[in-house]
Amino acid sequence: MRELRQDATGAAPELEELVASSSDELVRLAARVVGNTAEAEDVVQECWARALPLHRRGELVGVVVIKTWLYRVVLNAALNARRARDRRSERELAWQQRKVGDGVAALEAAVALKRVAAMLDDLPDEQAGALVLKELHGMTSAEVAKVLECSEGAVEQRLVRARAALRKRFA
Amino acid sequence: MDELDKELLALRDATQGVTASQAFKSELLLAAARAGAGAGASTAATATTISRKLVLAFVAAGAAGGLTVWSLTREPEAPPPAASEPPAPPVVNVNVVVSPAPASVPAPSSAPVASTPPVAVAVAPSAPVAAAPALESSFPRCRGILSKGTLNMPTVPDLAARLEKLPHMPHARAVVAHVKLPEGKRATDVLAQAPISEDGWFVAEAILRTHPVWFVLPGYEPVGFAVDFDHEGPQYLGEVDFSRSVGTRAELAVHIDGTCSDLTTELIPGVCPDAIHASQHGKSEPIATQQGRDPVFSGLSATPFTVLARSRGCTSAELDVWGKPGRVDVPIALEQAKAIDLEYVIAKAGELCHAKPEHRAVVPGEHFTLPGTIWLWIKQRNQRLSFEKTATLTGGYLGHGPLSQYCREPTPAESFSDREILNGDVYMAMDMAKQHIVLMRFNVR
After folding, report:
1. For residue B9, is pLDDT > 70?
2. Helices (DSSP H) in B76-160: which residue ranges?
3. Test the A interface: residue of B7, B11, B12, B18 with most A CBs within 10 Å
4. Has residue A152 got a pLDDT over 60?
5. A23–B28 C-beta distance less than 8 A
6. CB B181 within 8 A of CB B204
7. Which has the closest alpha carbon to B205: B147, B133, B270, B246?
8. Beta pairing partners, A98
9. Which residues of chain B neighbour A20 with C-beta distances below 8 Å?
10. Residue range B419-432: mean pLDDT, rounded
11. Of A46, A113, A135, which has the smallest distance from its Cβ to B18's Cβ?
């Protein structure tokens, strides 16, 4: 995770820079949690809707590592979306699944995202979040701990439990 | 590395290519540019439906300081029309507040930004700003495909209304319009967002449970808009709107994947006469379309346009217009389905083609058993009809068309547990224990 810090004066990076540098990563993270890109874009959009007014009011100044903050907000929003998913119709989800884009790679990604969603289906949020950040998003335990605001030990514990649950389910 | 690690690694690699769509990133950048434009910008309007939530967030943020909708301006041209109090609308008010952006707000395209002072076209009193956040959770997820009957609209049977032109407002590039309903009128999602193209054309959309819709634009006569019910019938398949210009010349391919007959596609240029350049437009005559052969429209001018697909007796299709895919289902509204006839043949394996088709009137909500043990449940959900068969029965969806074509040769069936009924679709159910096979076709009239 490339950290985007405030400069020495405490000024937050320009919004456009933040958006340009973060959107893909954030959508990817959200997609790995919710299982499709269309819904992931909605999640990221909601997060920006929260972040932009804060930025405008200068309230992001207190956030030292903005990307970590964004990851946290997106992850939580994605987990919320995952919980709310059952309330939506299967048809809508099926339509979203097709919205990944064109081409074989996109199709493979869509299939993979579906597998991810199925894999995470029954995991508790804290375990799902840790698993996605560490195993699928490639963060280090220290980075995951920052995003989840917990200790590295807690991260490792969540990962062990998540793996155990997955092994049990797919055994 | 165990199997789980390998699986996780494979999933990580396979999803590495997932990125935000270009349109989405553009919208975010545009919204960010506007949000960061300065403390004076209390509300920003974004260009497409994808950023509605952002728009609403900004509307909410701007509520405390009074509603001001910033829009980006083009070259200063003719002065805007004088603001005047609109006549009292009989049904619905649309309060449109437009003012141009300050010079510091970057334009979304390379169009020069006007340095003229803000031009307040009109400020309608008491715009229902406070209601905006409540809309956020319930507004349909149109995602750029504006179509009555699109499945991703949860308000499918509701009436959609649009105001498709805003004459004599060449300065504005974006408008947020609030629709105010009279007391006692039921409305779910009411928001008219109006991206204005470079030609000054815009679409305001409101999803209402009441009609007709009256749009009141300051300084103009109220415009009543009743839903065109011709578009609600089975011949209406769907449409894809392009509210942005597509360049001076382009070719457009429309791909329709569905079981349709008598299919035509039609390209309709933007409708605002003041906005359309005098150059050539897309053809506006319906073009007969064959399955698997894409109609191509050429010679498009830089105007917004709509692609309209129609098909007799067709209720579902995939549309893919220039990378804007969408599935369009025409809902079989119960009030429109005056009669639902279940045509079926039932026989033992190998004898289907000799069996005479039977007919049975079907009523939504009905459970019934066809001869043998073929149990069906006709369900009504969200104004759509679906049916469920006994779980132990195998079989599924076969396709579309007459039953006879499925008698002759075995066809792989797509299994289902709860299948939406579309007019003319053929299903199969088998009771392996008693070796009954039934072919069913629902005819909705």
Report:
1. yes
2. 132-136
3. B18
4. yes
5. yes
6. no
7. B147
8. none
9. 25, 29
10. 72
11. A113
Say whether pLDDT at A5 is over 60. no
Is the Cβ–Cβ distance between B169 and B151 less than 8 Å?
Answer: no
As a whole number, the mean pLDDT across chain B is 47
pTM given for the model: 0.37
| Residue to test with chain B: of A17, A21, A41, A70, most B Cβ within 10 A | A41
Instruction: Please name the residue that has the structure tokens 């032109």.
Output: B165
Judged by a CB distance cut-off of 8 A, whether residue B152 touches chain A is yes
CB of A100 closer than 8 Å to CB of B18: yes
Contacts of residue A51 in chain B, CB cutoff 8 Å?
none
B56 in A contact zone (CB under 8 Å): yes
The reply to whether residue B10 touches residue A112, judged by beta carbons under 8 angstroms, is yes
Cα Rg of chain A, angstroms:
16
B319-349: pLDDT as tens digits: 555 454 544 444 333 444 556 788 888 877 6
DSSP-assigned letters across all residues of B10-71? HHHHHTTT----HHHHHHHHHHHHHHTT-TT---B--SSGGGHHHHHHHHHHHSTT----EE
Nearest to A20 among B16, B29, B54 (CB): B29
pLDDT digit string, tens, across residues B98-157: 222 222 223 223 333 222 222 222 222 222 222 222 222 222 222 222 222 222 222 222
* Neighboring chain B residues of A26 at a CB cutoff of 8 Å: 20
Return the top range by mean pLDDT from A97-111, B21-35, B55-69, B354-368.
Answer: B354-368
Enumerate the residues of chain B whose CB falls inside 8 A of the CB of residue A135.
8, 12
φ/ψ of B399, rounded to 5, equals 160, -150
Residue type for position A37: T
